[in-house]
Amino acid sequence: EAQVTQNPRYLITVTGKKLTVTCSQNMNHEYMSWYRQDPGLGLRQIYYSMNVEVTDKGDVPEGYKVSRKEKRNFPLILESPSPNQTSLYFCASSLDRSLNTEAFFGQGTRLTVV
Amino acid sequence: DAKTTQPTSMDCAEGRAANLPCNHSTISGNEYVYWYRQIHSQGPQYIIHGLKNNETNEMASLIITEDRKSSTLILPHATLRDTAVYYCIVRRPTGNQFYFGTGTSLTVIP
User: Are A74 and A68 in contact (CB under 8 A)?
Assistant: First the structure.
């Protein structure tokens, strides 16, 4: 089954403790991205990657890092989480950067930083 | 960058057609219109997309005006499970390709 898998689904952590949220897709997609969703603000893109070893900032990249060492995985790294990074996070992938292919989304990771 | 304008909320009676409008007056010639929906806090679900012709699939129909400045998503027979936030997106060719905005909250009423 084609899917985008995020882990963990829920995470509570403390300020400053490094964490990684994993994202994996099984569709051999080139394009992957991370979003955060906050009440009243919709989904905002954090980072995206057009292919292996190619990443770029989205609209709200501050406080986050990503890597794309292999095609299927696109982890989101918070080196020093802060309470303002408490949010619902989504990973997405699409076949390529073509405008005629839909994006598939993971089920989300709810992160709370205390 | 082409942005979209949608009503904040809408209601629809169960079994009736739900027509969700979207304005995208600054869309460029090669940009597609996509519709997604999000139920509660689940991952957004793809519904349909199109360039300039009307499109239909098992979930919905998409009507795009001839000048491409607006579109309408039609759920032909709305059910309670269609209650969700619906996002109209103009997919950009660069950068953040899917700019979601705040969408339309559709409530299907029994």
Answer: yes
